[in-house]
Design goal:
Elements (H helix, E strand, L loop, with lengths): L11 H6 L5 E12 L9 E17 L10 E8 L4 E8 L14 H13 L7 E7 L9 H16 L6 H16 L6 H8 L4 E6 L4 E6 L4 E7 L11 H15 L21 H24 L2 H17 L6 H12 L4 E4 L7 E7 L3 H11 L4 E5 L1
Helix pairs in contact: 2-3, 2-4, 3-4, 3-5, 4-5, 6-7, 7-8
Protein name: Galactokinase
GO cellular component, one term: cytosol
InterPro entries: Galactokinase (IPR000705), GalKase_N (IPR019539), GHMP_kinase_C_dom (IPR013750), GHMP_kinase_C_sf (IPR036554), GHMP_kinase_N_dom (IPR006204), Mevalonate/galactokinase (IPR006206), Ribosomal_Su5_D2-typ_SF (IPR020568), Ribsml_uS5_D2-typ_fold_subgr (IPR014721)
């Protein structure tokens, strides 16, 4: 989903640099309906794009500080952090971690390096990033930024990526240049999904199936008020635990167990609980796809709640604020609710009847004063 190259409306780039950008691109956000922590285990996921977006505006920049051309200078501003930065990197690609800063510029450097690796002739540039995807909320803000960056830089340097190639490159930005060992779900949803449809993905084969969401039902996304950063919490730890469990069970990934629950007594805690969640969640995703295709939204809601309980008890990625908000959503009349994204804070996704939206939102606002409804899809 790309914006026009010469936007006539409000431009963050124009406000910062007092000129029009050469290129402007956007990327959506997403909410996962089911499939918590299954994508990096080569499992199944069911998610939907959200109409919250990240925008990136760019132009070429004369490198006044280096007449030799041995460096690429990046001058950027992000409304997402309120931070303006000038960063220089060697013109030729080198170790990703050597220039890691631990902030949003790492994504920009990663996108530039990945395009260089793909054959693009990248030189100095300016960029301005803006958007309404909340960070740390479990709505794929990082993937949204990565996809928007790759689209924008690809157009600026005439080396555009599309489809699976774009999604896999966005994944590499986070894995290699940021330090989060993420799965493929987020970028693939943002690249291949459309608002109003759920997307079922087999992350082993990358086979995908779009399923229309009945307009009589809505997915409401509600912020619990607590934030997290994936690189600073248990996300990478959970992935490591799954890898250790797979090694103990003699498989390359938990997907190879193919729904046949092994003897969990062979696994020490908490690895037994981690495997139980992944296997049961894969089965729930398959059931949820079938429920969505048949229009059985009551069953979909029950599966969403079962997913949350498993994420809370077996995968241990929930927090009290999320648990309370899930229960408030159900009490207010939702058919189902679960934590969104990786957990550890952020948002809850709730399935409601569209006709009840206004009443349901009023109930949530009364029951949970910290809750904030972002959007629905």
């Amino acid at each position: 989903m790309n914006a026009p190259d010469d936007p006539s409306g409000s431009s963050c780039y124009r406000q910062v640099f007092a000129e029009a950008p050469a290129v402007s691109t956007t990327a959506l956000s997403r909410v996962d309906i089911l499939g918590g922590h299954t994508d990096y285990n080569q499992g199944f996921v069911l998610a939907a794009p959200m109409p919250l977006t990240t925008s990136v505006e760019l132009s070429l920049k004369e490198n006044l500080g280096d007449a030799t051309g041995n460096h690429i200078e990046i001058e950027g501003y992000s409304t997402l952090t309120g931070d303006k930065a000038v960063h220089r990197i060697p013109a030729t690609s080198d170790s990703a971690s050597r220039h890691r800063r631990g902030d949003w510029i790492d994504y920009v450097v990663g996108a530039a390096r990945e395009l260089q690796s793909a054959g693009a002739d990248v030189s100095s540039f300016r960029l301005a990033a803006s958007g309404n995807v909340p960070t740390g909320a479990g709505l794929a803000s990082s993937a949204s930024f990565s996809v928007a960056l790759l689209r924008g830089l690809g157009k600026l340097f005439e080396h555009s990526l599309e489809g699976e190639s774009l999604a896999k490159t966005a994944q590499r930005i986070e894995r290699i240049h940021v330090g989060v060992n993420c799965g493929i779900m987020d970028p693939l949803i943002l690249v291949d999904g459309t608002v109003g449809n759920a997307l079922f993905i087999d992350t082993l084969t990358l086979a995908r199936e779009a399923i229309a969401i009945d307009p009589d039902y809505r997915l409401e996304v509600i912020d619990c008020g607590e934030r997290r950063r994936l690189a600073d919490v248990g996300y990478n730890l959970r992935r490591d635990e799954c890898q250790r469990a797979a090694q103990t069970l003699g498989v390359n990934s938990l997907r190879e167990l193919d729904g046949d629950e092994p003897d969990l007594k062979d696994l020490p805690p908490p690895l037994d609980r981690r495997v139980r969640h992944v296997l049961s969640e894969n089965l729930r995703v398959i059931e949820a796809r079938n429920a969505l295709k048949s229009g059985n939204y009551a069953a979909l809601g029950r599966l969403m709640h079962a997913s949350h309980l498993s994420l809370r008890d077996d995968y241990e990625v929930s927090v009290p604020a999320l648990d309370r908000l899930v229960e408030d959503c159900l009490t207010a009349g939702a058919l189902g609710a679960r934590l969104a994204g990786a957990g550890f804070g952020g948002c809850v996704v709730a399935l409601i009847e569209s006709a009840q939206r206004d009443t349901w939102r009023r109930r949530i606002a009364t029951m949970n004063t910290r809750a904030c409804v972002f959007d629905s899809c």
